[in-house]
Every structure is written in C-alpha cells, then in structure tokens.
Amino acid sequence: MKEIIAVNNRVLDINLSTGKIGTIEISHKDRREYIGGKGLATRLLFENIKTGIDPLSPENIIVMMTGPTAGTPSPAGGRFTVMCKSPLTGIFAASYVGGKFGISLKKAGYDGLMVRGRSDKPVTVGIDNGDVVIKDASGSWGMDTYDFQEARKEEGDWVVIGPAGENLVKFAVIASDKRIAGRCGLGAVMGSKNLKGISAKGNRKIRVADPDRFKKALKIAQKKVLAHDNTGRRLRELGTPQNVRAYGPASIMPVRNFGKSKFDKMEDISGETIRDRHKIKNVGCPGCPIKCGRTGKFNDRELVSPEYETIVFMGSNLMLGDINEIAFWNDKLNRLGLDSISTGNTIGFAMELTEKGLLESDLKFGDSGNIDRTIEDIAYRRGLGDELAEGVRSLSQKYGGEEFANHVKGLEMAGYDPRGCTGQGLGYATANSGATHLSGATHAVEADPLGGGADSYLSPHGTKGKAHFVIMLQNLVEMTNSAIFCIQTQFPFLEENVAYKYTPAPILRFIMRNLPAVAVGTTDISDYCALLSGVLGYKIGKKELRMAGERIYNLERFMNCREGISRKDDTLPRRMLEEFGEEGWAPVELDKMLKQYYRIRGWDENGQPEEARLKKLGIVY
Q1: How far is C-alpha 190 from the chain's CA centre?
Q2: Considering the domain 3-207 in this protein, what is its CATH number?
C-alpha cells in the first residue's frame, strides 16, 4: 500500500471537450503561500481561467481542492472546496462541503482536480487509485442526488448534481453524501459541462510529516474542542438550529423576506424543539469529533434534520412554522440539488412581489400549500419556476421591487439581518462571493438575545471595531478553508486560549470595542499553526498563516475587480439601508465602515487592492 506524507502535490486536470487527462504539480512555494483548499483553488483559477468568460460556457473551470488536513485525525479536516466563476453572480465563488469525497480523492493520489470544457453528452468521471476514466452517464441523467449515489456507491465516494444542476438553475448545488456545497450555483456549472458526477476511490495511507509535533498539537486541540460549550455540547445537542433562539430574539433572524424583526412561531422551529420532539441522531463528517449534523423523525420519516439557514429561509422568511414541512422540503431540495438559502429568499421575494401587485402568482406568506410544487418547478424550470430559477436579482430586474430584493452582488443574503448586527452588513458588502455568512461573520460576537447589546462583545449596532473584526475574520476563514479546518473550530481554538478564556468579559468587551487593532493583533491562532506544522513537517508561524489568509482574500478580490467589481458593488439591499423601524433594528452605517475597511485593507477608494499591497503579498500580475 502506498503512503501519502501529508499531501500529494498533484492536481488532476480533466478536459471534457477533448477527453485529455493530465496533472498539475503544486510547487513548494504555492503550498506555503496558498496552503491548499480555497487558497490553491483560487491560485489555480487565477493562472488558468480567462477574464470575462461566461460562467456556463466551456471556458469556465471547476476546481475541487482538499486541504493538507484531509485524511488526518485533525479536528474537522475532512471538508473540501469547490470553486469556479458563479453563474448566479458572474464573479468568483467558493463553496465548502463535507462528506467522504475529499478524503477519497486524496487517497486516490490527488489533492484536487480541475474540470475544463464540456462533454457532448452526459458523463461521469471515475477516479480509482490514480486511474481516471470518463464514462457515459446518459442513463443517469435526471436522477436525484441521493438515489444516484446509492445506485452507484460501489464506484466510490461521489460529488454529484441533481435535476436542478442539469437544468442550469442558477443556484443549483453539488452534493457529497448528504452534505451540500450550497452557494452560488456551482451545480449549474457542472450541469453546463454535462457532468453528472465524479467518484473517487483510493487505498493509499495518509500520514502526517511530523508525527510527534502533530500528536502534541492534536491532544491540545481535541481537548479544546470538547471543552468549549459550543463544539463540545451545543452543536452536538442542537446543531446549527441552536441559532434560532440565539438570533430570533436579537432581531437578526430573517422574517417575512427580511421585512419583520420577530417571528411568533420561533419556538416551533427552534433547535430545542427539534431535539425534544424529533428523535435526533448525530452524524458528522469523517473523523470530526463535533458531529453537528443530525437525522431525525419528521412525520414518522427519517430525514436529514435541517440546518439553521434552511429552517429560517423555508420557515420564518416565508412566515411558516411547521418543522415537519421544513424537513420534508429540505429533503426535496437536497435531492433535486437546490440551495435552500437562495430558494427560500427567491420564493420570499416572489411572495412580496405578488403581495404588492408586481407579479401574478399564487405564492403567499404563511401559505405552505404551493411550496412543494414551486420547489419542483424551479428545479425543472417549469412555468414561473423558470424565472425563479434565475434568482432574486434577475427577478427584480424584470418585475421591480429592487428596494426589497435581498442580495449582494447577485447572491441572496444569508440568515443574519445586518440591522441587528451591523458588522455583518459590512461582511456581506465586502465578501468576495456576495452575501455569504461565511466571510466576515461578526454576527456571533454582535448578537445579544437579551437585547441592548450589554452582553455582546461587539455592540450589535454602530461602527466601533467592525472593520477590524470583519477583516480579521475574513482572513481567518480564508486560512481555515485552505488548511482545511471547519469554521466551527474557531470557537474552541480562539476562545479556549488562556488570554481570552480568563480575561473578564467586561474587559474583553472594552478592548474589542475600543481597541480593536489590539484585540485583533493579539488573537491567538497557535492551534492552527501547530496542527498545520505537524501535518506538513515544517514550522508555520502566526505571521505566515495570517498573511496567507490575507493573500488569498486579496487575490480573489483582484480577480473580481478584473471582472468589473468595484465600490459600487460593495453595498447592501436598499431594505437594509433604509428600513429600520422594527424592534431591535438600527441603521447600517455602511459608508463609514467601508472607508475604514478599505484603508486597513490597503485598497483604494474604489475598492481596488493597491499595487503596494499586492506586491507585499507576493501577488504577481
């Protein structure tokens, strides 16, 4: 049996137009500067993709990339990155997913893969211990993501699209097991290439480069993961639906197409209700000790228990509070291959368009009768579903309602209303992919369920400290999504360190709000450094890791600027900037935060990374 010492340093290069299969070698320099995962995916696209191409053309390139931690006992390291130019936004986008595919790909001898071109008929790609074959998949076209994977599980672990991706729905997803790479329509790009799925199978053994260093770091990391209340208890017990009680009372949870700040049926969709009434079983990504995923009994059917984002966008955002219905819709969305965030946003927007007389439809807030059919109509592009499949931005351009069209750069907003956590508004406005909650996610330190902001580390309103923390968290996420560490490790790795854990909360609040540069500069990322050093076998310091995150973020921004992104696009939906009369909401002072953000980032007043900053980061163009 062959051994892999940390990484393969090989990327599979597949051209579906020509059938040519090759490999790309990863240099030591790129490995150190971009790490893996999101970082190397960004670098590969920068080097290989042309500016200005149509995302659904053969010229688009899909990159799937594992991190150095894949296949090791590192906490929550089994996820992988999928990246390409998004058909929903027209700019670059990455999504992250668990499942077994990433580890199997690495065991097959590749750290990642690139797919170019377009097949003239439906195909799958099979990877078996380094051997690669392109197979006819005409008979499988039309199968849902679950049935397809079950029918062909003997071929390996899969990434696959459902009917939504085949029909080029702009927010179609890619599935791996029952996990989803959900945002930005990456499944439609696979569909445009006539690529139903990719399987991977490998028997290589993965070992770390420095076992002694890694073992020591792992012992500390695992202890922190289990000790922290979020990763050691709440995520296991409640999963991400714990956020319903955290963000509902704090006026952050989306309600009625982001038109209201409170939802009367909040408790009916809470994590605690799901735990107590639906016989939950924990599941998780391979090797992950957190196990935040769950299955449960919903109307006597065992289904994947929906995550927070699905619960709120198919629930409170539509004024619907039956968790059994939401779980059923979640199953349908996953099978058909639809992003629940964009689907719920788009249906909610259509409901408000209808209510205001701008669209003729039978969609109505609080009425669940047509949701099941609408989901299918979107996936198969039938009737009104064909227009809904284009997303909120496209609908608003055709029917109006731009003042309540909740998207940024074409990506529908995630489940955190910035009028209840204003720093999150800056995160949405500047995130490279659009309005994602996984970039500059300050909502966790801004939320105060008791109201008033007294118990939150950053005030939920105002601008103090917001730019510094958005940048720090954006860079940190780029680093963790490159290594790869699950984003949930931020809680134990940052908050279980001595300085943070034993500093009295009032002092932490004062420093974070009034001396944000000090707070950011002293944030301890030593656990990430130690684990990654053990995996790769050379010392990686805090400065190097921080710079890697900054480098990756700036490179993607530079790529987006070449596609036309500028200050005009770093904004929020008009509803977020103009409507704040509900309980718990406050104005999002975006212009003030943006000026400070650009200055700290080293970007010019138009949002373009300055040449001096790019040179400092070693980005050559």
Answers
A1: 18
A2: 3.60.9.10
